[in-house]
Amino acid sequence: MCDVALTLRAGEIRGLVGENGAGKTTLMNILYGMLRPDAGVVVVHGRDVTAHWSTREAIRRGIAMIHQHFSLVSGHTVLENVVLPLLTWRSLRPDWRNHRERIQALGQAYGFSLSLDATVDDLSVGQRQQAEILKALYLGARLLILDEPTSVLTPQQTQALLQMLVGIRTLGHTVVLITHKLDEALAVCDRITVLRQGRHIATVAREDARTSDIARLMVDREWAVARAPTPVAEGRCVLEVDGLVVDRPGVPVVDNVSLAVRAGEIVGVAGVAGNGQTELAEAVAGHRPARRGRIRVDGTDVAHLPAPVRAALGLSFIAEDRAVQGTVPDMTVAENLVLDRIGRPWFSRHRIVHADRLRAYARQCMQTFDIRARDADVPVRTLSGGNMQKVVLARALAHRPRALVACEPTRGLDFGSTAYIRGRLVDACREGMGMLLVSSDLEELMELAHRMVVMFRGRVVGEVSRDRFDPERIGLLMAGSRSAA
């Protein structure tokens, strides 16, 4: 980050957008006191506070930052979580009645719909986010920084959050909204600041902004979006799941799920995080055991076969966390590209790897899938998130699988990388591959899927064809409303 200046006004919502690595979170971590700037100053209410700036000082001066991963204490109530940061060793007997009355009055003033006696474990994702905001306001925050706050919310929860932010602004607070979703920024932000490669590119008033213009400022180039999928004719079933049950200790997290994917078809799986979508995908791919049910790949029952055998039969898998499950960060790009087939004769013999063949194959994949790295021998951990995901994508698609299970294929990626990966997935399906697409991004599912199944508490609660896609209806299903089915 270099020579960035940002001035925030009381009573405004400021959007902060840019590609991954543009410096958005870094800039806000400096403002929140988590990072110290190498040059420049932090000025709060007209006073230079740089020399002694810290998170503790930021909170004392009314600045709060709510990260993507919440800091609530499970097993405790909303009331306890809101009061907890104020307690000291002297607070052996907090005045809970006084705290409750003040917090209830604060919640009513800002339009919160929370039971203070509900435990964190019983709250939806949207309610947990409300609890985080309520905690920040109770600590006296006048400036709220929210980092990608709608990434795991249903459309209804997103709309409720945005309306809440507008109400907070109306009462004189300042909000910084870090987001990849330009439509949300344009809906509520007074001004939108664009960062690119660590530099301030522009700050645009909402009335002067268009989505295409903001996107072009973010990436400094034209971008292509994935073409809408064409209808799929009745064809062979390349992936079938029948009566699948997957357990956590004592509890079924996937409960009697059945679905089918045809050649050329994209079937989306929607749901709020934690409703069994990830476990479903991992069980289908062979990375998690299933207690009961059948899984067929192109007609072959693979339910009791290990993941490598399923892959050899034509089933590819994209894990939801590219850095933890999708790659081995300290291994090279070339090695990561062949993790699932390094033992095959073309790449190795008698457990000795043919290094020249490996590098030649890696160079070909890097060119075909636009993987930008110095060479094939650099560790994957040195790549950007987008290029790391392209390595995962190349490994999944290079051998033209019959079926692909893709979990969160564009999560956390910038505008350009997202468009590229979605385009490659659509192209692969146009060539006959079937895809089960698990995503917490409803926009992604509505853009790519031919039809969608919605999961709630481990069960499929509805199926929606493309001609009936409606964010409100799908959002109700994601919240467990069977009347919307």
DSSP summary: helix tally = 17
Q: What do the pLDDT scores average to?
A: 89
State the distance separating the first and last CA atoms. Answer: 48 Å
- What is the C-alpha radius of gyration, as a whole number of Å? 24 Å
Shape: globular
Number of strands: 20
Describe this structure in words.
This protein is of the alpha/beta class. The protein is 34% helix and 21% strand. The chain has 17 helices and 20 strands. A 6-stranded mixed beta sheet has the order 4-5-6-1-7-8, sandwiched between helices. Strands 14-17-18-11-19-20 form a 6-stranded mixed beta sheet, with helices on both faces. Strand 9 and strand 10 (251-262) form a beta hairpin. Helix 14 (385-397) packs parallel to helix 15. It is globular and about 65 Å long. The mean pLDDT is 89.
Brief summary:
By secondary structure, this protein is an alpha/beta fold. It contains 17 helices and 20 strands.
